[in-house]
Amino acid sequence: MPKMKTKKSAAKRYSFTGSGKVKYKKQNLRHILTKKSAKRKRGLRHAGILSSDNVKAIRKQMLPYG
């Protein structure tokens, strides 16, 4: 039987915490930063935690490792 493959796009975007939650990098911190407030940019630096509704779908995409 062949190896199971991970969806590489999902693997690059998401990672798992020790307790099994899904971490991701927040969007909107790449360009056009002058109009965004310092408070907003500071908040976007921290990793986001995916809601539990979507965790099952991400685990399926990361199959052998999720």
For the record, the CATH class is Few Secondary Structures
**What is the CATH-assigned architecture?**
Irregular
Q: What is the overall silhouette?
A: elongated
Give the domain tally. 1
CATH topology: Factor Xa Inhibitor
Poorly predicted parts: none
Order of helices and strands: HEEHEH
Q: Name the helicity range.
A: 25-40%
Strand content: 5-15%
**Secondary structure tally: strands:** 3
Assembly annotation: single chain
Assign the structural class, choosing from mainly alpha, mainly beta, alpha/beta, alpha+beta, or little secondary structure.
alpha+beta
**Termini gap:** 20 Å
With strands numbered from the N-terminus, the spatial order across the biggest sheet is 1-2-3
Q: Report the sheet with the most strands, covering strand number, pairing sense and barrel closure.
A: 3 strands, antiparallel
What average pLDDT do the residues reach? 94
Radius of gyration: 15 Å
- Annotation field: number of helices: 3
Explain the overall architecture.
The protein has 66 residues and is of the alpha+beta class. The chain has a single domain (8-65), classed as Irregular (Factor Xa Inhibitor), CATH 4.10.410. Helices cover 36% and strands 12% of the residues. The protein has three helices and three strands, in the order H-E-E-H-E-H. The chain has helices at 8-13, 38-45, 52-61, and strands at 14-16, 22-24, 48-49. Strands 1-2-3 form a three-stranded antiparallel β-sheet. It starts with 7 loop residues before the first helix and ends in a 5-residue tail after the last helix. The model has no long low-confidence stretch (mean pLDDT 94).
